[in-house]
Design a protein that fits this description.
It is a single chain. The protein is of the alpha/beta class. The strands form two sheets. Strands 1, 2, 3, 4, 5, 6, 9 and 10 form an eight-stranded parallel sheet that branches. The chain has a two-stranded antiparallel ribbon with strand order 7-8. Strand 1, helix 1 and strand 2 form a beta-alpha-beta unit. Helix 3 packs parallel to helix 5, helix 5 packs across helix 6 and helix 7 packs parallel to helix 8. The radius of gyration is 17 Å and the shape is globular. 50% of the residues are buried.
Length: 254
């Protein structure tokens, strides 16, 4: 399946106190959906408020990027969290962001796990169900953004939550459609031309070349570009231009 339009999302608000990582203001002029860190892997109250205000001003959809409680590891370390605790923490993060989204005249429009949690819920049924339980506590109508075919999407669909399939222009894929772990060589695609080419191919043809060279079907409604990569803003602009030049409309899914 291919789409006449595709959403562009990026991870934003990934700072803490005086430390900043993502160029939120400039990225919000390019993307159509913002995955806002909710304080567990990055972000704090002031940052969440600021990003929500900027997103609302630009008409960008606000998404809660929920994660394990892991500020020191940026949410990328494997953790074992009991299901009930994880569900409560997911709901907590969504609720915190919703306060600032509503204050800015917007609302939380979807939920996306981050980092280690994102990868864990691709295959872990218990952790996936816990994330879904957390979303249900916060808002039973929120779409869940994640990898196609993941346990997360299966659990969300069973619970009656909308699911949105996501692809990555700047991450390498394995033959089974999962992402190549960041610790492996070539996991992050850094060549801008390749990122643009892959992004357009996924949007128009629903196919990407895996790390091993095979073709992988990628049926996605939203395309993620990481805001913490070098040159993220320029890369995002190039991807958007490439999509629009190829005839793909760039617009929010929600």
């Amino acid at each position: 399946m291919t789409w006449a339009s595709i959403d562009l999302n990026a991870d934003l608000g990934e700072g803490f106190g005086r430390w900043t990582l993502t160029d939120d203001e400039r990225l919000l002029s390019v993307v159509t959906s913002a995955n806002v860190a909710c304080g567990f892997h990055a972000g704090d109250a002031a940052t969440m408020r600021r990003v929500c205000e900027l997103a609302a001003e630009r008409g960008v959809r606000i998404g809660a990027q929920v994660s394990y409680r892991d500020l020191a590891g940026f949410g990328r370390r494997a953790m074992d969290v009991p299901a009930a605790e994880l569900a409560a923490e997911v709901a907590y993060q969504i609720g915190a962001l919703e306060v600032f989204a509503r204050a800015a005249g917007s609302r939380v429009s979807y939920v996306k796990p981050h980092g280690a949690l994102y990868n864990r819920v691709v295959r872990d049924e218990e952790q996936a169900a816990a994330v879904v339980d957390g979303v249900l506590i916060a808002d039973r109508t929120l779409p869940v953004l994640g990898l196609p075919g993941s346990r997360l999407h299966e659990a969300a669909a069973e619970a009656g939550l909308p699911v949105v399939a996501e692809a990555f222009g700047d991450r390498a894929y394995r033959a089974d459609g999962s992402l190549l772990p960041r610790g492996q060589e070539g996991a992050v695609v850094s060549d801008p031309d390749r990122v643009v080419e892959r992004s357009v191919a996924m949007a128009r043809s629903g196919v990407v070349t895996a790390h091993c060279g095979s073709s992988v079907a990628v049926r996605a409604r939203s395309l993620c570009l990481h805001g913490d990569t070098p040159g993220a803003v320029d890369l995002a602009r190039r991807v958007r231009e490439g999509l629009e030049t190829s005839g793909v409309r760039v617009e929010a899914f929600a």
